[in-house]
Amino acid sequence: MAEIAIRDALNQAIDEEMARDKTVMIMGEEVAEYEGAYKVTRGLWKKYESPRVLDTPITENGFTGVGIGAALVGLRPIVEWMTFNFSIQALDQVISNAAKMRHMSGGQLKVPIVFRGPNGPAEYLSSQHSQAIQSFYAHIPGLKVVAPSTAYDSKGLLKTAIRDDNPVVFMEAEMMYSWTGEVPEEEYTVPFGKAAIRREGDDVTLISFSRPMRLLEEAADELATQGINAEVIDLRSLRPLDEDTIYASVRKTNRVVVLDDAWPVASFGSYVAWLISRNCFDELDAQVELVHAEDVPMPYNHNLELAVQVSTEKVVKAAKRVLYME
Amino acid sequence: MASKSKNDTKSGSDSAVSMNLKSYKKDFLFSALEKMLLIRRFEEKSAQMYGLRKIGGFCHLYNGQEAVAIAAAMAADMSRDYMLTAYRDHGHALACGMDPNVVMAELYGKITGCSRGKGGSMHMFDVEKHMLGGNGIVGAQIPIATGVAFAEMYKKKVLGQKDAGVALCFFGDGAVHQGAFHESLNLAGVWKLPAVYMVENNRFGMGSAVHRVSAVEDFEIKAVGYNIDGMQLDGMSFIDCYEGIGKAIERARKDSVPTLIDIKTYRYKGHSMSDPAKYRTKDELDKFKAQDPIELLKSAMKDAGMITDEDYQNLDKQIKQTVQEAVDFAENSDEPAIETIYEDVYV
Question: Is-above-0.80 flag for pTM?
Answer without folding.
Answer: yes
